[in-house]
Amino acid sequence: MARPKQLTPQNHHGPAVQAGLNRPLLVMVFLGLLIVAACLLSLNLGFIKLGPLEVVRTLLGGGTDQQELVLYGFRLPRVVLALLVGGSLALSGGILQGVSQNGLADPGILGINAGAGVAVVGLLYVSSVTAAPAFLLPVAAFLGAAGAALLIYLLAYKDGSVTPARLLLVGVAVNAGLGAAMLVLSLRLDEQLYTYAVTWLEGTTAGATWSAVRALSPWFLVLVPLSFYKARTLNVLNLGDNVATGLGAGVARQRLGLIGVAVALAGSSVAAAGGVGFVGLVAPHLARRLVGPNHRVMLPTALLSGALLMVVADTLARNLLAPVELPVGVVVAAIGAPYFLFLLAKS
Known about the structure:
Elements: H1 9-44, H2 52-59, H3 65-100, H4 112-127, H5 137-156, E1 157-158, E2 161-162, H6 164-187, H7 191-202, H8 210-229, H9 231-237, H10 241-246, H11 251-273, H12 279-291, H13 295-319, H14 328-346
Antiparallel strand pairs: 1-2
């Protein structure tokens, strides 16, 4: 009589553990395929329509001069910029939500985008010309975002530390104050500058060039790996300050460093595409629902979700009311605002 086969721990638990490990990878692969499909659709649609085969043929070097101009001169840099901005804002939001331990944290809500906006509007007000400060806008936006973050951190610092709740409340208050300052400065601009400032502050990828892509790429290539490297630190901080200190993490120092990474991601994105909001709020939430709260898999999933959201929003902005073009920030807000209200109601 044959002896019954004994179940080893590997036989009993292996498939379940393996399935748990494979799920985040499958989700990320699926999001990657959706991004490719969204990019191809975005490259197809527009005033001059290009079929899928024409897009592929042009990318392989077989298109006409007009097709190459439309694809490489206008649509492709815009799509690439949308991918970089969406991914950066999503990562920034994921880090800020982890640092503050609050799912409502977002670069736009905490005042980082508003700081960049105040700096840009102030530069326009001082210069009084539309063309002159164009090359200084990214610099002003980044410095404004960094200044707002520093102000928030200093105001939230108390008794030798910064608590997540205090950081979030101070950020919301600073955001309101900077928003009021931006409104006052905007009203003092002439009509032409006001239109220019409002369009930029609402967020736009219109007129995106390879220069903008090259300007944002170094930030993206440096900060994204650094964000992934810091995922373990975020996991430790989410255990609470006492536990994190017991595990040897310098809580205040690590929190300040993570805020710096989030600010750099948001500031560089605002510099490239203006004040696009809600990507940093929606994408991390979607990622947590798909793969769970572990930042090692949540942050890459958030990056892909943000990139997908931004490309879809940019495609809608270009084609929804064509030939009139909407600011991409308005489309993202139309998607993100109801979700924010839903989260607020649940909280």
